Amino acid sequence: MYKRQAAKSVVLATGGYGFNKEMIAFYRPTFKGMTSSNNITSTGDGIELAKAVGASMTDIDWIQTHPTVGKDSRILISETVRGVGAIMVNKDGNRFINELTTRDKASDAILKQPEQYAWLVFDNELYKKAKMVQGYDHLEMLEKANTVAELAKITGMTSSVLEKTITNYNSYFKQGKDEAFNREQMPLSIEKAPYYAVKVAPGIHHTMGGVAIDTKAEVLDIQSQPLKGLFAAGEVTGGVHGYNRLGGNAVADTVIFGKIAGTNAAKHALTQK
Question: Catalytic residues, which ones?
Answer without folding.
Answer: 103
